[in-house]
Amino acid sequence: MDTIFSNPVYLAIAGVLAIILVYAIIKKIIKLVFTIGVLLVLYVVYLNYTGQEVPQNLDELKKSVSNSVNKVKDVAAESMEEAKESTKKIVEKKVTEKVNEVFGD
After folding, report:
1. How far is CA 25 from the centre of its chain?
2. Measured in whole angstroms, how far is the alpha carbon of residue 4 from the centre of its chain?
3. Which residue has the higher pLDDT, 2 or 87?
4. Contact 54, 47 (CB under 8 A)
5. Terminal-residue alpha carbon distance, the chain
6. Distance (Å, whole) CA 52 – CA 47
7. 57: DSSP letter
8. pLDDT band for position 59 (cuts 50, 70, 90)
9. 98 in helix, strand or coil?
10. Could you write out the DSSP letters of every residue in 68-85?
11. Which residue of 19, 38, 60, 100 pairs with 105 in a disulfide if CB–CB is 3.0 to 4.6 A?
12. Is this prediction's pTM over 0.85?
């Protein structure tokens, strides 16, 4: 630290690096805010398109989003169960075919 603060060239390099770091952080924050804004607009358009009530305040928005997330989780869980059952049946069928082939039934 003493070396950086004692030499003006090192201090200038550290200052430039600090400015670049701050710029990168601000840029990421702006991208995040922009992305969240676009997602919220798309969500409101989706709600309007499906005829659902558009939330008027932040609490209603949180409830609406959490309800939608829960619905997606339920659908995904059902799909996973169906996929498990289907895969299980296919594997059992293939195993039975191989056993019959090996033992000559």
Report:
1. 21
2. 41
3. 87
4. yes
5. 82
6. 5
7. S
8. confident
9. helix
10. HHHHHHHHHHHHHHHHHH
11. 100
12. no
- The pair of structure tokens assigned to 93 is 């069928």
For the chain, give the number of residues.
Answer: 105
Q: Return the H-helix or E-strand segment holding 14.
A: helix 8-50
Gyration radius of the chain's alpha carbons: 29
Residue in the block written with tokens 């996929």: 83
What tokens appear for 61 in the block? 């928005």
- Would you give the DSSP letter of residue 52? P
Distance, in Å, from the CA atom of 89 to the CA atom of 69, rounded to the nearest integer, reads 30
- Among candidates 83, 19, 2, which has minimal Cα distance to 10? 2
Kindly list the distances between the CA atom of residue 61 and the CA atoms of 42, 46, 52, 57, 96, in Å, as whole numbers in the listed order. 13, 13, 12, 6, 52
Looking from the CA of 41 toward its CB, the CA atoms found within 13 Å total 6
Confidence band of 105 (pLDDT split at 50, 70, 90): low
pLDDT averaged over every residue in the chain: 88
- Say how far residue 40 (Cα) sits from the centre of its chain: 14
